[in-house]
Amino acid sequence: MTEHIEHIEVERQKPQVKHLWKVFWILLLITAVEFAIAFLISADNDFGKWLKISIFIILTFVKSFYIVGTFMHLKEEVKGLIWTVVLPVIFVIWFVAALVYFEGSYIGSVR
Amino acid sequence: MSSHTSSTPDNLLWKGGIQPMKVGYGKLMMWIFLLSDTFTFSALLISYGLVRYSFPTFKDMNPGQSIKDFTFSPEWWPTPERVFEAVPFLHGLSLPLVFVGIMTFILIFSSVTMVLAVEAGHRMDKADVEKWMLWTILGGFTFLGSQAWEWSHFIHGTGGGGANLVYNEYGPPAFADFFFFITGFHGTHVLSGVVLNVLIFYNATNGVYQRRGHYDMVEKVGLYWHFVDLVWVFVFTFFYLV
Predict the structure, then answer these.
(1) Global pTM?
(2) How many structural domains compose chain A?
(3) Does the distance separating the beta carbons of A85 and B31 come in below 8 Å?
């Protein structure tokens, strides 16, 4: 890492923030949609309840793509770093899904 | 920081002396730490999901009734939107999930101001870094204060004796246990994130990073702050919405 002292008066560059604010509005919109779904779709029947849950989970993952990809700049990193972060997360999700699917039935006999 | 002008041949990439992933050691280790923290919060949320599912729901114990007739009881897991329907200064009004929605907005907004601080750091714009970091710190403190209010309101309860680790007027004690544990763990992360932000803000104001030639430290605490926001997004979904 090179360290250097900056004493030159650099002209203030213009901020490049348009796409950042765009992502903020996207996140806000998705959250608003989640709220709307929460109150508009009735959970009184099984289909409604699981529809809501699936939508919430999908939208939450969409939000995380934006936060991790743009806010944390992972999209702009080297492929190796991207996979270093993404692969373990995929494994965790698969891990949970597989456990719940294959072993999850025990939960009914806990109480 | 490292120059990206020359591309190292692949066989020399991992031989030392350069940055194989083109990021500094600190930033790489922050990512790895965030991965490990992801496992911690995943464990908490997964156990929450399983314990919650082990309890019957209101509809299971009262077949034929609609969700609208919901009441609290230790027999079944409560519906979060009935537990969290208070807003500060608006006593008595039933505003389900409104306050937690406001809290989510505050945290997401502070994430935006954080990434703007990082962007200002890329341009070596000290003034803008200070400005945006200050907004981020303010957002963090506001979120902490809001969470504190949620806790005190939850503990105090609405006439039924409140909720703590042993007794819960809203439903099974496990609900209160998980609420305190998960939001408590998250709140601790927010607190440590705010402390870090204050320290880095102090350094930035004193010109430490301007003299260093890069604002990488702002990026690193930025990563931590975004992670805290991300965890909240998941907690909010699985605890309050689902």
Answers:
(1) 0.88
(2) 2
(3) yes
